[in-house]
């Protein structure tokens, strides 16, 4: 068997012991809060049927779905015929297909875009390969990797509708896969961490999601973060106000970018999309509304007084705020942000986004209400609302703010080091005593130099070492070394136990 | 968007709330024990490079690896040329390729195997599709789904050798995927749960793995299980004894089946493999050795007195047993089983297998020592030993023995039911108090009939319901209903808190 280089696919990651402890700490903290609010965990398979996923994420999303090759003889006559047919069409069109690889082409195409001959030689075949690949893919691949947790959840709800208690409150923490071009902070495999409730239109759910964000992020040690809230119906009201109710999507896409491109940029984009100067003059004061949440709502009530849907949105936000007055928010600032739009078109009511104010980082969470999640699987009109924690970003924030605890009760607490075989035998009953007391303990097998054993304790950040040599065996008093302070003392096993228990 | 049937790929599973609690309970119990013994968690990516996996699991295994289609334009001229070339070869060979699907063919081939013409018409093209698929697959797929945790672990050790503290004790609990034909109890996605240590040849590790099995399975509630232990070197010694050292694999494969096919079956298989009657007469008393472990070892020492490797194996087992005398085994019977062989050829020392004696179930765990795990990635001579828990089977055993606890502190403990909007507002501070006391509590949003709310509590197996109506608001005494006993009493929130805390 030829040697193979030890490597992993680009955009994927190994998680070593330290990262795992930290990731588990984040997930466990969030899970505990989800459970406190009555959310139950489910898991769905890594692979879904390709047709479950296709068409749910737009054309661009479809291209980013990882497809799994059918097992066995995926190439049969039907596939071959189709490959032949399409290839023949290309031949007929007189297109010469060179041996071109995707990456090369994208590089070259940038250089050659203005050169028509080269463009035809390279881009045309490229387009045809793309067409061919798109057409053949579903014929040789029936399954695909989960792209998000939302569509599998919708599929789950419909498939298990007879077992489910409504309202169904579920959380799900699993990896998802996207064939995105990998870059710093963007991976092809990453975890999503979602909670959703379907079958309840009460705004209590929205209010509790604010509480869940507040409680989980507070437990994780964040001290300054903002939960932004808006309502799609208010945005619809604004679109009505400026007389362009049909252009709600263009409008939201543009104002969603206010943070990044500024007011001028938003105006420019809207003008390009066909809004006129007069309309922008109506829009501007609305999205720039200042004051506290109540002041903003009061102004909005007047501004949108002629829009039924706008007033409905205001009423919903009002209700959420009134719930929140009775809940005790610990840390979060809750802010009505009329520029918050969130790209996803399936949102229909309240929308959320969470930002930390302590580190430069995009949103660390978001979500909203949708009115028809399961329609795509034949069950219409089921309302839902959900949120998501951006676990990878939260990890980076906690690392930057040094909020990961240095000590870790989950790892080995004591390493027993011995000088030889007799000491090893002597050590085993001591090992038993410590483990029986639920103290994570290792015995370094005899045969290694003491220096190597100490290095092992250091590398694994084990806080205490028990050293056993001839003296210790004779006296029964063991040397306990505190690896941080370097302090060393001779104690009976009972004293060691008491000392460690008091620390833990 | 056309409606799609809500379904999942065959051989995969959704895990609902109850299953998740039970699965997490199993994994958490095992994890806790792994950690107690100094094992650290790692995770590797779902996708590995295809060449990392290919050739590690035999030809049959290679066919069962799920391959991921390259993203983007996976079909390029190189692939097309090759498809064309192979198809042309088939044409030249005069083979007519009909539109044949894999499943059909296997069915038909059984019926038609004796009909030469049909065989040629169907099986020949099939073979060619197989050849074609095998050749094209690696050209359109660079990545594949993890097939087990062992090869990714070996890859991890080599890739991260400079960060790793030796001996490296890791555990890993992640799903793996195999394109096996699904059947009862065999899935295409299932979890493996492995612990391994590399870089230490001490038999203390073997002894501790016995302790880990004992402790974890005891915690899970099993009361009667056997950890079988053997040593590959003893099996080699036996092969030497009968003068067929080169046929160790045929020998072990056959005696591994003693349980299933009986002594006659084993003898029959060995005769077919080329062993003769005289050799079997030597073998028989050895594998049928009776007595306790020490008696068996004593007999073996005499029988294998001329086999260096056999004696080495006996010495290793002896040492493990002597360690185990100092450890306190709680529940397990530890048994030297000379017929235990375990199929995998990479084992070189001690091997383990765990069986429950309370339920009819195959092995619920196994493992052993291997001397060169990482050689395939260019790092030779690293010794390791590891074990695996069969989580799905353990789940089935616990279910059969009714060992899953009925009560579950992780789920919602209290549901607050209200008659109307005023009661809902009144309930929120109570909700806060219970949650602040770390009691998982839900408030059913107002608007639903009391019967529906009670049904919700029943379905979710919520043990307590607090009912708030007009009376309760006036008196401040809330109705607490025990959902199991049906008992109902009026208590202040403080009394409720005390009561629930005492139960928890």
From TrEMBL, chains A, B:
**Which reaction is recorded as catalysed by this protein?**
tRNA(His) + L-histidine + ATP = L-histidyl-tRNA(His) + AMP + diphosphate + H(+)
* Listed GO MF terms: ATP binding; histidine-tRNA ligase activity
Per UniProt, subcellular location reads as: Cytoplasm
Q: Where is the Aminoacyl-transfer RNA synthetases class-II family profile domain?
A: 23-429
A matching Pfam family? tRNA-synt_His
Its EC number(s) = 6.1.1.21
InterPro entries registered for this protein in UniProt: aa-tRNA-synth_II (IPR006195), aa-tRNA-synth_II/BPL/LPL (IPR045864), Anticodon-bd (IPR004154), Anticodon-bd_dom_sf (IPR036621), His-tRNA-ligase (IPR015807), HisRS-like_core (IPR041715), HisRS/HisZ (IPR004516), HisRS_anticodon (IPR033656)
Q: What is its main location?
A: cytoplasm
Q: Which UniProt keywords apply?
A: Aminoacyl-tRNA synthetase, ATP-binding, Cytoplasm, Ligase, Nucleotide-binding, Protein biosynthesis
Q: Which residues bind L-histidine?
A: 148-150, 178, 192, 196, 342, 346-347
Give the record's GO biological process terms.
histidyl-tRNA aminoacylation
Cellular component terms (Gene Ontology): cytoplasm
Subunit annotation: Homodimer.
Similarity remark = Belongs to the class-II aminoacyl-tRNA synthetase family.
What is this protein's name? Histidine--tRNA ligase
| Gene it is expressed from | hisS
């Amino acid at each position: 068997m030829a040697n193979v280089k030890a490597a992993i696919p680009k955009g994927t990651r190994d998680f070593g012991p330290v990262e795992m402890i930290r990731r588990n700490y984040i997930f466990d903290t969030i899970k505990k809060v989800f459970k406190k609010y009555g959310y139950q965990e489910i898991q769905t398979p890594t692979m879904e049927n390709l047709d479950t996923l296709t068409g749910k994420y737009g054309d661009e999303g479809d291209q980013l779905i990882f497809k799994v090759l059918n097992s066995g003889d995926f190439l049969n006559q039907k596939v071959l015929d189709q490959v032949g047919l399409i290839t023949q069409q290309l031949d007929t069109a007189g297109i010469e297909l060179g041996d071109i690889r995707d990456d090369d082409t994208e590089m070259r195409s940038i250089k050659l875009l203005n050169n028509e001959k080269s463009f035809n030689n390279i881009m045309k075949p490229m387009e045809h390969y793309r067409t061919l690949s798109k057409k053949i893919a579903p014929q040789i691949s029936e399954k695909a990797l989960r792209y998000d947790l939302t569509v599998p959840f919708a599929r789950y709800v419909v498939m298990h509708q007879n077992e489910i208690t409504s309202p169904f409150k579920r959380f799900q923490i699993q990896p998802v896969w996207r064939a995105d071009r990998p870059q710093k902070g963007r991976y092809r495999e990453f975890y999503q961490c979602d909670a959703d409730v379907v079958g309840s239109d009460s705004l209590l759910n929205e209010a509790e999601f604010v509480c869940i964000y507040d409680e989980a992020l507070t437990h994780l040690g964040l001290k300054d973060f903002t939960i932004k809230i808006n309502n799609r119906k208010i945005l619809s009201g604004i679109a009505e106000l400026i007389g362009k109710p049909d252009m709600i999507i263009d409008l939201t896409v543009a104002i969603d970018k206010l943070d990044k491109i500024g007011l001028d940029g938003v105006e420019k984009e809207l003008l390009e999309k066909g809004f006129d100067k007069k309309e922008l003059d109506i829009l501007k004061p609305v999205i720039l509304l200042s004051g506290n949440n109540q002041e903003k709502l009061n102004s909005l009530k007047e501004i949108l007084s002629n829009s039924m849907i706008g007033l409905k949105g205001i009423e919903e936000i009002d209700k959420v705020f009134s719930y929140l007055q009775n809940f005790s928010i610990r840390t979060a600032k809750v802010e009505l942000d009329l520029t918050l739009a969130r790209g996803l078109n399936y949102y229909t009511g309240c929308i959320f986004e969470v930002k930390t104010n302590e580190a430069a980082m995009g949103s660390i969470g978001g979500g909203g209400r949708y009115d028809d999640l399961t329609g795509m699987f034949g069950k219409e009109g089921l309302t839902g609302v959900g949120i998501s924690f951006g676990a990878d970003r939260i990890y980076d924030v906690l690392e930057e703010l040094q909020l990961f605890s240095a000590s870790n009760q989950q790892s080995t607490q004591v390493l027993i080091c011995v000088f030889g075989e007799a000491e090893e035998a002597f050590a085993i009953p001591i090992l038993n005593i410590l483990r029986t007391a639920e103290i994570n303990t290792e015995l370094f097998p005899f045969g290694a130099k003491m220096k190597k054993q100490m290095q092992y304790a250091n590398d694994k950040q084990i806080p205490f070492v028990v050293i056993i040599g001839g003296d210790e065996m004779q006296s029964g008093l063991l040397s306990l070394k505190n690896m941080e302070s370097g302090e060393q003392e001779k104690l009976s096993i009972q004293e060691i136990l008491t000392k460690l228990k008091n620390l833990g």
